[in-house]
Amino acid sequence: MPRLFQKMLIANRGEIALRIQRACRELGIPTVAVHSTADAQAMHVRLADESVCIGPPSARDSYLNMPNILSAAAVTGADAIHPGYGFLSENANFAEMVEAHGITFIGPSSAHIRMMGDKISAKTAMAGIGVPLVPGSDGEVVDMDAARAVAAQIGYPVLIKAAAGGGGRGMKVALGPDELEEAWTVARTEARTAFGNDAVYIEKYLDRPRHIEMQVMADAHGHVVHFGERDCSLQRRHQKLLEEAGSPALTPDERDALGAVVTQGLSKLGYRNAGTLEFLYQDGQFAFIEMNTRLQVEHPVTEMVCGVDLVREQIRIAAGEPLGYAQSDVRFEGHAIECRITAEDPETFAPTPGKVSVFHAPGGLGVRVDSALYAGYVVPPYYDSLVAKLIVHAPTRPEAIARMRRALAEFAVVGIRTTIPLHQRIIEDAEFQAGDYTIHWLERFVAAGRDH
Questions:
Q1: Banded model confidence at residue 140, pLDDT cuts 50, 70, 90
Q2: Which residues fall within 8 angstroms of residue 215, CB to CB, at 6 or more apart?
Q3: Long-range contacts for 73-77 (Cβ within 8 Å, ≥24 apart)?
Q4: pLDDT at 238 (0 to 100)
Q5: 268-301 residue pLDDT tens
Q6: How much of the chain, in percent, has pLDDT values that exceed 70?
Q7: Contact, 112 vs 271, CB < 8 A?
Q8: What are the tens digits of pLDDT across the range 213-226?
Q9: From CA 152, how far away is CA 138, in angstroms rounded?
Q10: In what order do the strands lie in the sheet with 224-236?
Q11: Catalytic positions, please?
Q12: Rounded distance, CA 313 to CA 324, Å?
């Protein structure tokens, strides 16, 4: 079988760079690793066919340095670039530059990245294709008079959100009219500082929602399928810590109904490649909040329940191949859980970079570890603290929880502190075991643990 691409440059680092390398190797595609000087000994560099240093430790000067990455592609002869997640994965300008250089960008078009990167234009697009939204402003809220009018119309509490936001930055809650002005002002200031764009909009604040997301894949031939939902409600400061597929809160009929709306809508938009639509779910109702035009950190739980290699599908679609299957061919088997293991103190969440003296990953039936750690590796202080993803799969949710308990007990990382003890506490909690949690649950759980 001829290669889909002659050479793939992976514009990322860590476990996701390794994940993409594995898919490429199975497809017979040579890989190019790019790295900062801090990552010269990183596993993704060691296992790549070629590697290029693209700058000093700062992400701004290396993994976000578009000219250096494109130069690395040119000198190595790479005809495709996979951005992974984070860094430049949702940067429309980068996708445009890649396209302009005659290199294939493994992802959606720059136009769709730009459309979905702005939360206001994303909501407008979704409203136009029939996807349900959280009640709120029609667009940017430009002054306090407009903010008061919107808040009065939809009712308090309200959430002020940055149009270009992400990761909880530029997001503030106003419980009543007396808190609105301060929340609006602080949200705009945070948005300007973090994103260089102080545009904000207002949504109704839901008090006990779950965070449900739908994984989709679309080819260039008009075919769109979904791979079910993930429940990502266990979050701290809007950062996910644990994900499940499927959600303990949804029925198969609810999954099918949401999936039909999503796939039909994206077909109308002409979307291509992988994407994830994120919703708040409360009282049986879904409300769209944003779309991620890239591979998600938590994609392995979907792969485990569907038996599909999502990265392989991204690459096939980018090469122009059709999906080759219909929605009716997608099967959902069992239950999967992912714990995000970070180099952080499990109680204070302070980063804990340093040298890993011992690393032992758990194994056995239904256990997967995506990690770039190894004994002797020094976790650098310059990047995201995620160091491993532990994923388990089993026929039922209780069996998956039991398997996760066993796997966490086997997981040994010595030399740095990690959040493994926190995950062990979470899976032993009765409310978690019952599937009875919302996006606010983990904050209270962590606070209660500190109180004791």
A1: very high
A2: 226, 227, 228, 229, 230, 274, 276, 296, 299, 302, 310
A3: 73/9, 73/32, 73/98, 73/101, 73/103, 74/101, 76/7, 76/9, 76/32, 76/50, 76/52, 77/6, 77/7
A4: 85
A5: 999 999 999 999 999 999 999 899 999 999 999 9
A6: 99
A7: yes
A8: 999 999 999 999 99
A9: 14
A10: 285-292, 273-282, 210-218, 224-236, 239-245, 335-342, 386-394, 367-371
A11: 294
A12: 10
- Provide φ and ψ at 247, rounded to 5°: -80, 135
Domain 210-451 has CATH 3.30.470.20: yes
Determine the Cα–Cα distance for residues 294 and 350; give it in Å rounded to an integer: 28
Q: With contact defined as beta carbons under 8 Å apart, do 165 and 120 qualify?
A: no
H-assigned helices in 360-419: 397-410
Query: Taking the alpha carbons of 168, 419, 415, 11 in that order, is the dihedral positive or negative?
Result: negative
Using the 8-state DSSP alphabet, how is residue 204 labeled?
A: E
Helix (H) or strand (E) holding 154: helix 144-154
Q: Which residues pair with 278 in a beta bridge?
A: 213, 290
Given a contact cutoff of 8 angstroms between Cβ atoms, the answer to whether 385 and 344 are in contact is yes
pLDDT band of 337, cuts 50, 70, 90: very high
135-204 and 210-451: same fold?
no
Average pLDDT estimate for 7-30 = 98
Contact assessment for residue 352 and residue 374, using Cβ atoms and an 8 Å cutoff: no
Return the CATH fold of 8-106. Rossmann fold (3.40.50)
Domain segments of the chain: what residues? 8-106, 135-204, 210-451
Class of domain 135-204: alpha beta
Q: What are phi and psi of 275, to 5 degrees?
A: -160, 160
Supply the pTM of this predicted model: 0.92
- Residues forming a β-bridge with 353: none
Distance CA 8, CA 84 (A): 12
